[in-house]
Automatic annotation (TrEMBL):
Its main location: cytoplasm. This is Signal recognition particle protein. Composed of three domains: the N-terminal N domain, which is responsible for interactions with the ribosome, the central G domain, which binds GTP, and the C-terminal M domain, which binds the RNA and the signal sequence of the RNC. It comes from Diplocloster modestus. Its EC number is 3.6.5.4. Residues 270-283 form the SRP54-type proteins GTP-binding domain. Belongs to the GTP-binding SRP family. SRP54 subfamily. The gene is ffh. The chain holds residues 1 to 297 of 449 of the full protein. It is found in: Cytoplasm.
Amino acid sequence: MAFESLSDKLQNIFKNLRSKGRLTEADVKASLKEVKMALLEADVSFKVVKQFMKAVQERAVGQDVLNGLNPGQMVIKIVNEEMVNLMGAETTEIALQPASEITVLMMMGLQGAGKTTTTAKIAGKLKSKGRKPLLVACDIYRPAAIQQLQINGDKQGVEVFSMGDKNKPVNIAKAAIEHASKNGHNVVILDTAGRLHVDEDMMNELIEIKENVTVNQSLLVVDAMTGQDAVNVATMFDEKIGIDGVILTKLDGDTRGGAALSIRAVTGKPILYIGMGEKLSDLEQFYPDRMASRILG
Ligand code: GDP
């Protein structure tokens, strides 16, 4: 299960805090030091941990807290609130154009992150909201990717637009938008190619799409299991392409928590959805407060 080790550690630290009636400044500082270690071990980025601990410390080591009725409980509450803030405080939705217009979503991510699966999951979500999505196979390098999108699109009852692997992705995108406008689709979801590493060719292809097509939202899919690598990938995509939001996959797995806690703070971009399994229904809206509760146990 996700965050198990981080949750266990935090719960132990908090249990100790709660068990003490009165707290001294030294008690609180010692506990916060343990929180810091637990976050670092969970692969939260060092800069984020520093920033987080500063915010918590400023609020938790004052006389207000120490002389209060239940200082241990107060410290825990502060950690919880700052954790929610770290992840963006509010829930962010994918920004869609009015239903009378076409919204173009460009899905991006490294191979294996879960991009194609997530693309179909999102199509299903939008369909259930009354939109008429069109899935577009822009990954021309992996024949299996086109097939996989087709299978998932069929499962979701969503049309898939494909031109095989002989056309440039930018031209497939253009043709798809034309097809969408002729056939009453109001969301076009481009499934772009994933590569093993962030490379120049991949970035150029995405830039070319963005320069020639009105992309309303560029969404990055990253694998939570990869921890800080996921954060680095997000930073790189944001610098080179510009991203509007992140979808964090595989949170059902044994992930340590680093990516979930760092991405917003490092990139300034919100987590929109979380992937919770391989099934096409396993996609959840991201709620920072619920995620903090999950981590804090
Ligand atoms: P792509 O290469 O980025 O398009 O990745 P795929 O969509 O093909 O997904 C790669 C693997 O990850 C597949 O086996 C998916 O079933 C799996 N996967 C995707 N999202 C999730 C998730 O949220 N949880 C789990 N457990 N597996 C996922």
